Amino acid sequence: MAARKTAIWGGVAAVGLGTYYLYNAGGSPKVAEKQFEHDAAKITSKVRGELPGKEKEAKTQAKVYTEQAGQNIDSAIDDVKLTTSKVDAKLEGYRANAEKKLDEYRKEAGKDLSSAVDKFDKTVEQKAAQSKSWIGSWFGGK
C-alpha cells in the first residue's frame, strides 16, 4: 500500500515538474526539455562539484538559448507572413474596387457615346430633310 502511494505521489510530482517547465518555456516542449536538461546538469554539477558537470551545464544552456532563439525566429516569420497576407488582401480589395469603378465608368461612357451618336444621327437626318426640301423647292418640288 505504501509503495502504491509513493508511486502515485511520484507521478503527481513528475506531472507537476513537467507542467512547470512547459509553462516557463512558453508552451514549447523542446524549450522545456532543454531547460530541464540544463537544470539537471546544473544540479549534477553542484552535487558532484566536478568540472565536467560545468561543461555539460554550459552546453545545455547554449542549447536552451538556441532553441529559444529558433522559436523567436519562427514567431517573427509567422508574424511577417500574417502581415504580408493582410497587405495582399487589402491590395486585392483595392484592385477589385478599381476594376469595378473602371467598368462603371466604361459603361457610363458607352451610354454617353451612344446618346451622342443618336443625337448626331437625328440632327443629320433633320438637316438632310431640310436640305432636301430646300433644294426641292428650287426645282418645283415639295
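(the above was protein one; protein two follows)
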Amino acid sequence: MNMSRPKKQIILGHYLGGVNHQTVWSDPAAGSQIDFASFRHAAVTAERGRFDFFFLAEGLALRERQGQIFDQDVIGRPDAITVLTALAAVTEHLGLVATVNATFNEPYELARQLASLDHLSGGRAGWNIVTSSDAFTGQNFRRGGYLRREDRYVRAAEFLAAARRLWDSWDAGDVVADQEEGRFLRRADAGAFAFSGRQFDIGGRFAVPRSPQGQPVILQAGVSAEGREFASGGGPDAIFSPYHTLTEAQAFYRDIQQRSARHGRPPGSTKILPGAAFVLGDTEADAVERHREIARAQISGRGAQILLETVWNRDLSGYDPDGPLPDVEPAPDDPPVIQGRARIHQNASETVAEWRAIAEANRYTLRELAIHVFGRTEFVGTPAQVAQRLDDFVQQDGSDGFIIGSHLTPTGLDEFVDKVVPLLQERGSLRTDYEGTTLRDNLGLPALAERVAV
C-alpha cells in the first residue's frame, strides 16, 4: 500500500442475484425474484449501508440444455430499466445500474430510456454495457444472431459513441421557461444530432433534454484484449473484474490504469470493481463451516456438471460429481450443449488443462472444482475479519471496491450492512453519509463539462 496517498474510499455496489448458480432459491428464507417488494428491500438496505449503487443483470432468453429449459435456474426476471425506474421513487441517493445489451438494442431508444431514468432519479442512472454474438439469444430479435464475434466491440464502441452524441445534443441551459408567454423557449439546434459509422447511420433530434449527470455512468465487464482496450480507451467509467486473488487483481488493476494513461485519461478515471460475496460467523471456524454449507447449496452435484458442461461442451451427466474431473477433452466446435449462457472461457482446451492442474493440486472432486472456479471473491470470517480483508484488498490496489452479492434474495445483504458496514466506517474507508447528489459524484468520477465536444 502506498502510505503517501490518502486512504481510498471503498466503492460498494449491490448485485441482486437472479438467473445464476449463486442464488439459493431453494432456501426457505428466499423471496420472489419478480415481486417488487424483493427489489425494494434490497435497494433500501443497500442505501442504508451507504452503497454507491444497486445493480441488475439481464437475461434476454431462457437458458436451455440440449433443447430443454434449464431446471437449475430461477426462471425469468423483469426488465432491468423498468425495475430501476420504480426503485428511483423509493430511494434518494443510491445509484441505479442496468445491464443492457448493445447488440440487440438501438442507440436512440436506449439513450432515451437511460436519460429518462437519470432525470427521474435526480442523476443516479448507470448502464452496464454487454455484448453478444449468440445466435440463440439473437433469435428473439429481428436481426437474429447475425453479429460476428469480432464485431461485438466494434458495435459496442459505436453504440456508446452514438448514445453520447445524443446525450450531448442538449446543453444544460437549452430550455428556458417564459412565464409571461406561458411557453418554453429553446435553442434552435437543441437536440439536433447526426452519427454515421459501420454499425449506425442516424440523425434527427433527441427528445430528452440534458440529464442531471450529463451522461449516465458507464460500466462494462470484459477482460479480453479487446475488452481491456475498450475499457481503458474512453469507454466505461468502471469495469467489473473477475479476478479472485490479490495478485491477479493487482495485475489487472495496473494494466487498466496503464492503458488508460496511454489513452490520456487521468488517474482514477476507470474504477475496477470485482464481484464479491461474504459469509459471516461468530468465529472464523463458524464462518468457514457456514460458507461450506452455502457453497454446496449454491452448486449441487447436478449444477456442477452443468457448469462444467459450459466449457467441455459435452454431456457430463454420467460423471460422478463427487469423483474426478471428466477424462475426455472438450468439444468446442460441436453444437452447443448449453444455450443462452455467456461464454467467458474462450479457449476450452487451455481452461480444462488449468482446471485439471488445480484439481490435482488440491485433490478436488468435480463438484469441488466447480465451486472453486465459478465462485466469486469470497470474504469469510467474523465481521471484523471481513471488514479488514475488504479494506486491505482495496488499499493494496486489488480494486476500487466491490459488487457485493449474497446467496439469499432479498435479505442477504442485511447482515453485511448491520455488521460489516459500521466497521468499514470506523476504519475511515466507507462514507458515513453521501457526499454528492449524483452517482458520478459519489463514485468520485471526473465531472463532465456542461457540454462535451462531439
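Reviewer note on protein two: The CA atoms of residues 29 and 374 lie 24 Å apart.
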